[in-house]
Design a protein that fits this description.
31% helix, 5-stranded antiparallel β-sheet, single chain, 17 strands, alpha/beta
């Protein structure tokens, strides 16, 4: 990293995606990784996503080639669950798992195209980004007699510290006019650009973004910044975000008002219920009850749907994530 002051997004970019970055050097989601996402709860999440994909395939007229891009696929957990659910669109399905980490791509399942970057050609289908935008580098605004941008610099002792710019001129529309001294807010320019670029790839279809976030940036400015600017390591909260670059994840709640306006925004609980999670849980209960006397592996998987659904729908946890959809 440079010794000169740099915007926070450049620091975060190097810390997560540089040569020794957290993701490029092997940081991963999962029970044995650094954080847990919905696909890692169990296969139920992927089974519901498979139902969503079928609904979009039918909406588009059941095209002979239906491309699904899993952006930020990690080790391919979502891909495994979707394929295992045997969606109706399977014969038309071309599943592309996009993951920057070579180590993670090696773990992708058979039946997917494992690549480092989004496709360059337009296509018909769906792009799914589950907990991707929160990890895209963001700038950082700090309120100190007006909103200023945080830059970071490295001292002779190797420590990183912040330096603030002059106040924004003109002011940024999504930041409140006033806030407590020291209040902070993320500026997610890169996430907004990613959404715009992803939408441009779709000749027909939908972009589905699932992430922890808030509807309005102003809500974050009035919360303690440690609530939404977080680091993770080994499934636990990490150190200060300027400490140990490359050794921990850096993430933020996503302020959805800074993104292009979606066609719909729902909670994850609402989205999963809309696309049949209750039916899948009821099916799991029925199969378990039928085979409870001598349960096999399939019956055990069906029984697990109950606990999985509780975690995925939890209003104090994953169920409160936001799901935004853009359609073309």
């Amino acid at each position: 990293m440079s010794a000169d002051p740099i915007p926070f997004d450049q620091f975060m970019d190097a810390a997560l995606y540089g040569p020794a970055g957290f993701y490029t050097s092997g940081g991963a989601a999962g029970r044995r990784g650094d954080f847990l996402t919905s696909p890692e709860v169990g296969p139920l999440f992927g089974a519901v996503i498979a139902r969503y994909l079928d609904a979009q395939w039918r909406r588009l007229g059941e095209p002979d080639e239906f491309v699904v891009v899993d952006a930020g696929a990690g080790p391919g957990t979502l891909a495994r669950s979707v394929l295992a659910a045997s969606p109706e669109c399977s014969d038309a399905l071309r599943y592309i798992a996009v993951e920057i980490s070579a180590a993670q791509r090696e773990r992708h399942p058979d039946g997917v195209e494992s690549v480092e970057a989004l496709p360059s050609e337009r296509f018909t289908g769906v792009i799914v980004a589950n907990e991707l935008l929160d990890n895209l580098p963001f700038r950082l605004a700090v309120f100190e007699d007006g909103w200023r941008e945080a830059y970071v610099e490295q001292g002779s002792d190797g420590r990183w510290t912040e330096r603030l710019s002059a106040t924004f001129d003109p002011p940024l529309s999504w930041l409140p006019e006033s806030a407590p001294f020291g209040a902070r807010a993320p500026l997610v320019d890169r996430a907004a650009a990613w959404v715009a670029d992803a939408r441009a790839l779709l000749s027909a279809g939908s972009l589905l973004v699932i992430d922890y976030g808030v509807p309005h940036t102003a809500d974050m400015a009035h919360r303690p910044w440690r609530d939404w600017l977080r680091t993770y390591r080994n499934n636990e909260r990490g150190e200060h975000y300027l400490s140990s670059p490359g050794a921990q994840d850096i993430t933020t709640d996503v302020p959805f008002d800074q993104l292009p306006e979606p066609d719909s925004v729902r909670s994850q609980a609402q989205f999963l219920q809309l696309h049949g999670i209750d039916d899948l849980v009821a099916e799991g209960k029925r199969i378990w009850e039928e085979q409870a006397a001598r349960p096999g592996l399939e019956a055990m998987k069906m029984r697990s749907r109950i606990s999985e659904s509780e975690a995925l729908l939890d209003p104090a946890g994953l169920g409160d994530f936001l799901v935004a959809e853009w359609r073309t």
